[in-house]
Every structure is written in C-alpha cells, then in structure tokens.
Amino acid sequence: MNIQSQFKKCSLAKALLFLLPFMLPASVLKAQTITKKQKYVVIGYVGGYRGVADMSMVNPEKLTHINYAFVNVRNNRAWLTHERTDTTNFRNLVLLKKRNPALKVLISIGGWTWSGNFSDAVLTDTSRQAFAASAVAIIKKYNLDGIDIDWEYPAIPGNTGNVYRPEDKENYTLMFKALRHDLDILENQTGKKLLLTTAVGGFKRFIDHTEMGKAQQYLDYINLMTYDYFQDSLGIAVHHTNLYASKQYKTENYADKAVSDFIAAGVPASKLVLGVAFYGRSSIVLDAAQNGLGMKKGEQMRVGGYTRIKDSLINQKGFKYYRDRNAEAPYLFNATTKQFISYDDEWSIKAKCKYLVKHHLAGVMFWEYADDKKEYLLNEIDASLKTR
C-alpha cells in the first residue's frame, strides 16, 4: 500500500469517528420508533347495580379503564340510586389504583334499565346544564376520572316505557358538549385529565338517529356495543356477537359492519373501541338443521357468563362446540334439547383483537367483568394486545 492510499484510509476513519456522535442519536431514535408498541385501551364494565361488588375479582393490571355500571338519571340529574353501596364501590375501585396507578375509573350513566329519562334530562339548555353539573359533581366528590354515557337509545325505543323524541338526535350531541364544558372547568381546577366516553348501539339505526360525526369531537372513546345482535334478528337463532356476516343465515348486524358504518358517519377509527361479550345468549330452536344456527327460535333462556360456559357446557351435558368461520363466531348446540348458545370464546376474542389492530381501533371493551371471574377471556385480550 502506498503513502497516498494510507492517507486516504486514515482520513476516512477520522471522518467516520467525527460523524459517529451525530449519527448515533438518529439510529437510536429509529430503533425506538421501531420498537415502540401501540397502547390499546382495555375497558371493562364492573357492575354495582346489585349492591356492594366484590372488587377482589378485578385485576387492574389487565385493564386501562373501568366503567362503573350504573348511575341513574332522575329529575334531570345524574343520580346515585344506591348511594350507600355505590360509595363503597367507588372507594374500592379507586383503591385498585395502588396496583395500577394508570387505571382510570369512570361512572357509566344509564344502561338498558336506566335510560328512560335521558330524553327529558337533555331537552333544554337549562336541563342539560343541570344534568352535566350533577354528573361532574359525582366524579369530583369521589375522585373519579370521567363519565361514560350509555343512553339506550336516543330518538328510538329502548326498554319498555323509555321516553324518546326526534329532538334527541341533536340533543344527544348537545349533551356531550355540556358535559365536556364542565369537565374542562374541573380539569383546569385540578390539573387532572378527565375523560368523556359513550357506549353506542352497534347497528346502523343508532347512527341514523344521532349525529356521531359531530358528537365525536367531545368524546375520548366510543364504545361499540357489538353484541346482543339477537334483538334485531328475524325470529331466528343467530350469533349475538359475531365479527363478520354468517353465510348460514341473512345477517343484519355484525361488528365489522358497525365499525365501517361509524367511520363512514365521521367517527375516527382511533376513537372506536370494539365491544366483546363475556356472556352468552341462548334459545330453544324449532329445527335441528344447521346445528340450530339460523333456525326459527322459540323460548329464550338464560345461560350466564363465559366461565360457566367454558367450565360446564362446552362439549358437556349434550352440548357440542361449533365454529362459524365466516362469522368468526363460536356456538354450542344440544341436538336433544335443541338449545342453541351464542357467545365469545378465546378463539373469537383473538380474532377480534387482531381485527382492531389491523383497523387501527383504540382497543377493546367488554360487558361485564363478573361474567368471567376466572378471566379466561381477559387473559386472551391481555395476551393478544400486549404482544403487539
């Protein structure tokens, strides 16, 4: 090697040494970007409507949010119907933050049973302001993190006797505006981030009777109740929480359709939370063809939560396990008794988690915690989303 070559080699080495400190941060930053994982929300509804709830069953390390169900609506106010036991439940929920300081605890107002007075409560500016003030007062008093609205349903019938009117469509949006206004005031006073979310019907009719594109601007998350689809069926046994349409019957509603419809209505995918069911729906069918799926149904039956289904019914007591791979939905059928059961299991939960990651949704929500105390489904959610 001649002197000129040696000089060039030495100069190149010095140049690289000089540039190394400037190149390293960029490469480290790139590595951090590559390895940074998406944080998905896992929202669990915990019921307090039966009285003091057993909070020892709740695993806060596997949740990001708890929605406490439910707070009533009475005299145009958010109302603690069972204040004594609600107070105990709030205290015990807040204590869970010792195990997960990032956990958020929200009150959920309404639900299927207590949505009857929403329409009156948000009918005027005065009533909306009073309702918003009362709801925010509850979370301030009990040191909670936000408000979830579960109005079933604006402008259309829900439970028997519920008040509903065409004006609900606009008032639904104005309700969130009023709530967000009061939450912002409390945020400024406390320096604490406060959340506003809602649970919504996972079907097109809900969208048609609301202004979700406008309402979403006030909301942190929109929890899709992509379950209980049996209510809109044509008197046949159907999947109650299917991800896709089945080819074995004419499918009216399914989760993928709900996601597409809400996005088309102006809701960002990043605010949508996919709902899953921790419980089953069951009925007796009149024909054993297709293992009951799509057959005319008669009596509806209570089947309970997934822990019971998994431990006591799957391939037991005459029930046989089936998968509708088009719908990504499992079901059980007893050919002797003609009992059909629809539910979510680990297989369908895994598919739903994969779906929400693919479609850039915010995360997953489930009703309700007590239905799967052994956490079979929550463990699958945790495993599926933490590995992403």
Which SSEs are present, and which pair or pack?
Blueprint: H1 3-35, E1 41-47, E2 65-74, E3 77-79, H2 83-95, E4 104-110, H3 118-121, H4 125-141, E5 146-150, H5 168-190, E6 195-201, H6 204-208, H7 212-215, E7 221-225, H8 255-264, E8 272-277, E9 281-285, E10 297-301, H9 306-313, E11 319-324, E12 329-334, E13 339-342, H10 346-358, E14 363-367, H11 376-386
Parallel strand pairs: 1-2, 1-14, 2-4, 4-5, 5-6, 6-7, 7-8, 8-14
Antiparallel strand pairs: 2-3, 9-10, 9-13, 11-12, 12-13
Helix pairs in contact: 4-5, 10-11
Description of the structure:
The chain is an alpha/beta fold and 388 residues long. It has one domain (35-278, 344-386): TIM Barrel, CATH 3.20.20. It has helices at residues 3-35, 83-95, 118-121, 125-141, 168-190, 204-208, 212-215, 255-264, 306-313, 346-358, 376-386; strands at 41-47, 65-74, 77-79, 104-110, 146-150, 195-201, 221-225, 272-277, 281-285, 297-301, 319-324, 329-334, 339-342, 363-367. Strands 1-2-4-5-6-7-8-14 form an eight-stranded parallel barrel, surrounded by five helices. Helix 4 (125-141) packs parallel to helix 5 (168-190) and helix 10 runs parallel beside helix 11 (376-386). The model is unreliable at 2-10, 15-24 and 26-35 (pLDDT under 50).
